[in-house]
Design brief:
The chain is of the alpha+beta class. It is built from eleven helices and 25 strands. The strands form six sheets. A seven-stranded parallel beta sheet has the order 5-4-3-2-1-7-6, with helices on both faces. It starts with about 25 loop residues before the first helix and ends with a strand.
């Protein structure tokens, strides 16, 4: 390991492009809403997964050959950043060092970096020059965990019988700080340092996490720092939270946050065998959902080892950009939805006196119901309508009904823009019975409560909105409803099911009351049926209804449309 340099020359300090100061340093992040995550390094040469060395238990000497073969001869920073700009992203975060310990820049602090490869350039330097030209801020992912550095502990259990012995983590943290100094003083105005690997408790055990945070803030007070510098718990200095591969059901406890998500299944680095990718519709709706809950979406790509970005990523990013050209007003600079729940399949965002309704399943009735909106509406129109043709609206009790065209402008997500007399003010939405006393709890008006990764998703097709890919018992659709008068109700479930879910059970819970159903095959996952589950005596008042599945493997080939409560004499 080369001798580390610890003296800070003031002439090398990064010069912030905006004055430091409190909440102002966070404003660009709050407004940006959409960023690109990039995982790229020696693991891309293997083309299997960024954790390939660990998964396949590759000895260090053998893995070093992949590092030395990393030669991105077709990398072009301007082409990358041009693509990200066309996608509508506002910032980029790239791996400066992943868990394998390889630094994807020319680091004087390390002998395990781009200097051991045939490539003569510095990708991070090129990106730091190209990003501002394309209106992008640049940040760096930097792993605390390091499988290569001789001082770091623990080692991998498969490569050492005594993984925690030896080493010197204090020396390693000094090394990490020197690399952070290189990044923060040699690569422009760094937007953020995105740490990872905190679960091995290196900094917490040494009580040096605050020291590292303060060190970064001294070098560049505008650089944001995520919550993975710390063991993730309330009270640390982190600027934003980082839910991974899921969108929180109700946001992130009021804190600033960003969901990092892969476009493909679960590999962050390049996987040449990957065939499963989220659709452009999935990605657009995910961006809307994250924004509606007050967060940002950090969408990951894993470039090829030669520096090109595979078509599967390019086409999806460009599709998102085309959607944002039309609807970006309803994303950038907006705040979370004023509604906790919605009666239609969609989301809402707001900006000053503007309310944006993102509609995923276009109402067949020709009217869009907006629940509990108290404001006076000055105007309503579709963002996709260049003429901004006014839409008619009327009050229906506490709700607003907006007349919309028969056909959706965009089946992925269409946006109705309302200009109000002030910031949106709404009453909490709770499902109420129709004039016959029937409660219709469609999946569109539910939220999905989950403990970690949300895999079940809402979908719409052929006039149905349903839950699909319900592969985990932790995914729990939840509704709020208000029962005006105590009574006995018949509980019905609407679903479609293939043979693979036949005879499996699901339970409907309202408070401490439960009724269950055993699934019958309907022919396929597109043929819906209604099944009576039983009767429940329900008291008057506000209730939470949840549907839970019992099989930990989930319900393959099952499309769940919702629950109906029918009053009985």
């Amino acid at each position: 390991m080369r001798t580390l340099l610890f003296l800070l020359a003031t002439s090398l300090l990064a010069q912030p492009t905006q004055p430091p100061g409190g909440a102002d340093r966070l404003q660009w992040f709050k407004d940006a809403k959409f960023g690109i995550f990039i995982h790229w390094g020696p693991y891309s040469v293997l083309g299997r997964h960024e954790w390939a060395r660990h998964f396949f238990q590759i000895p260090q000497a053998e893995y070093d050959q992949y590092a030395k073969a990393f030669n991105p001869v077709n990398f072009n920073a301007n082409e990358w950043t041009s693509l990200f700009e066309r996608a509508g992203a506002r910032y980029v975060v790239i791996t400066s060092k992943h868990h394998d310990g390889f630094s994807i820049y020319r680091s004087k602090a390390s002998d395990y970096d781009m200097e051991i490869t045939p490539y003569k350039g510095d990708p991070l330097k090129d990106l730091s020059i190209a990003a501002p030209k394309h209106n992008l801020r640049l940040g760096f992912y930097h792993s605390i965990m390091d499988w290569h550095h001789p001082a770091y502990r623990p080692r991998r259990a498969w490569e050492s019988k005594t993984p925690n012995e030896g080493g010197n983590n204090n020396l390693f943290v000094d090394y990490m700080k020197e690399q952070l100094r290189e990044l923060l003083t040699g690569y422009g105005d760094v937007a953020m340092i995105w740490f990872d690997g905190e679960w091995e408790h290196t900094l917490a055990n040494l009580k040096r996490d605050d020291e590292v945070y303060d060190y970064i803030s001294t070098l560049n007070p505008n650089t944001l720092i995520n919550d993975r510098l710390y063991e993730r718990k309330p009270g640390n200095k982190a600027d934003f939270g980082t839910p991974e591969q899921f969108v929180p059901a109700t946001g992130f406890n009021g804190a600033l946050w960003e969901s990092c998500v892969t476009i493909n299944t679960d590999s962050w680095g390049y996987n040449k065998y990957e065939t499963n990718f989220k659709t452009e519709r999935d990605l657009i709706r995910m961006l809307v959902e994250v924004t509606s809950k007050g967060g940002n979406l950090l969408l990951n790509i894993g470039p090829k080892p030669d520096g090109t970005i595979q078509t599967d990523f390019v086409t999806r990013l460009e599709a998102m950009g085309e959607w944002l050209k039309v609807n970006g007003e309803a994303i950038y600079g907006t705040k979370a939805s004023p509604f906790t729940r919605m009666p239609f399949f969609g989301r809402a965002t707001q900006k000053d006196a503007n309310l944006y309704l993102h509609v995923f399943a276009w109402p067949q009735s020709g009217e869009l119901r907006v629940p509990g909106l108290k404001n006076l509406i000055h105007s309503a129109h579709l963002l996709a309508d260049p003429k901004k043709t006014p839409l008619a609206w009327r009050r229906d009790g506490a709700d607003i009904l907006i007349s919309v065209p028969k056909t959706a402008p965009d089946e992925r997500a269409s946006v109705v823009a309302l200009r109000l007399d002030g910031a949106p003010t709404v009453d909490p939405f709770s499902i109420r019975p129709n004039d016959k006393g029937i409660f219709s709890l469609g999946i569109e008006s539910s939220e999905i409560e989950t403990r970690f990764e949300q895999r079940a998703k809402k979908e719409n097709a052929l006039g149905h909105v349903f839950l699909t890919n319900w592969t985990r018992s932790d995914d729990i659709p939840t509704w709020n409803l208000s029962i005006p008068k105590a009574g006995r109700y018949k509980v019905e479930a609407s679903y479609a099911a293939t043979r693979s879910s036949k005879d499996k059970t699901f339970n409907v819970h309202i408070g401490n009351l439960t009724t269950s159903g055993k699934i019958v095959e309907t022919g396929n996952a597109w043929v819906f049926t209604k099944q009576t589950l039983g009767n429940l005596n329900l008291p008057a008042g506000d209730h939470v209804l949840q549907v839970k599945i019992t099989d930990p493997q989930g319900l393959p080939g099952f499309s769940f449309e919702g629950i109906t409560l029918v009053p009985l004499p």
